[in-house]
Amino acid sequence: xxxxxxxxxxxxxPPETGTLLPRTVFGPEHEDYRRTARxxxxxxxxxxxxxxxxxxxxxxxxxxxxxxxxxxxxxIPEEFGGLGADRIxxxxxxxEQARVGASGPGFSLHSEIVAPYILHYGTDAxxxxxxxxxxxxxxxGAIGMTEPSTGSDLQSIRTRAEDKGDHYVLNGSKIxxxxxxxxxxxxxxxxxxxxxxxxxxxxxxLVEANSLGFxxxxxxxxxxxxxxxxxxxxxxxxxxxxENVLGTEGMGFMMLMQQLAWERxxxxxxxxxxxxxxxxxxxxxxxxxxxxxRPVAAFQTMRHRMAEMQTELSVGRAFVDECLKAxxxxxxxxxxxxxxxxxxxxxxxxxxxxxxxMHGGYGFMWEYPVARxxxxxxxxRIYGGTNDIMKELISRAL
Length: 398
Ligand SMILES: Cc1cc2nc3c(=O)[nH]c(=O)nc-3n(C[C@H](O)[C@H](O)[C@H](O)COP(=O)(O)OP(=O)(O)OC[C@H]3O[C@@H](n4cnc5c(N)ncnc54)[C@H](O)[C@@H]3O)c2cc1C
Hints:
Blueprint: H1 28-45, H2 49-55, H3 60-68, H4 87-99, H5 107-121, H6 124-136, E1 141-144, E2 160-163, E3 167-178, E4 185-191, H7 198-201, E5 202-208, E6 214-216, E7 230-241, E8 245-246, H8 252-288, E9 290-291, E10 294-295, H9 300-329, H10 334-358, H11 369-376, H12 387-396
Parallel strand pairs: 1-4
Antiparallel strand pairs: 2-3, 3-7, 4-5, 5-8, 6-7, 9-10
The protein binds flavin-adenine dinucleotide.
Flavin-adenine dinucleotide binds next to strand 1, strand 3 and helix 12.
């Protein structure tokens, strides 16, 4: 019999528990699309988890397959190669990826962070050059903000693009860059001005991976998300044409701020889906595991714990779905997104910690999805701005 709580070559889904209220976000078109996404993650991604974790990144060919399946850049207009769909479709892709516990492919960053920057701020030439290739998986996108000496305090970055008339000369380095190892195109956050005001001196610059002087480190050895390629990037006198600036020079910080609400909601969406998926697995486990002559799920302490978990999941679900509706309506506030990112990522850690407990010693074994989820999901509290920074943002408006 297949042990569906253990990692196997084939994805075996536990029964879905659902939350305490029905979801009202999706229409039949989203559910149709979900079937495509589900099939893709179960068949093209899940069986490779071990091999990709060992090499520290997914195979390049997966990106082309995802492009062929229509899973990349879904919210990009059709004229630039996307599906022209709303962000609820993008949410379906994120949820299905989280369902199989595949933290490897950095699809959401590529499709939902990098591509929208180009769509919103790029010139027509930049959009035509990069977006169709990003939608097909021919090129992979990354964004480099964080540096070895600074992350939260983005205004203190040191990477500098020196103005040389018709081109810039870029020097500096970035760290912890998702998709960095496989990336063909990186949006580099760099200083272009010298006013001393970080916010006014910052620009976003498109740098192609084959540029002379641009090198990448090996995938970093991380505690979790081991199949996701996360690297250091080095820029040593990289000559970048002036036309590669994204939007207006010196407006980089403003552009970053405008996109952050959705980026943070995306983290909440992924954390929520992952917490729900792991709850399903753990619930299934305790129903099938016996102790003292009965299923572990029959003990009152366990039943009460699960009741608490399902309630927490339902609270998170309601908050995330309301934020998603606001995002689609164009009314999501930075504060609500920060709150969703902070609370749901913390809730996800609490729930998955309990899921590990429910598995006893097996929960500590790498071949059990809950063990991987325990460390993979820890990252949600760090990137996209740490949860301390989320509290700063929310409290400023109080
Ligand atoms: C798996 C992974 C993927 C990532 N992907 C990317 C990527 O694709 N692109 C990218 O640019 N970056 C990426 N990052 C980097 C991530 O965004 C940063 O690590 C994060 O923003 C924190 O920055 P830092 O590491 O420099 O920590 P620091 O800023 O040095 O923070 C250290 C500690 O101080 C706290 N702190 C800092 N300032 C304050 C304050 N004002 N008030 C209270 N506490 C504070 C922080 O909360 C934290 O606990 C990734 C990180 C990880 C782990």
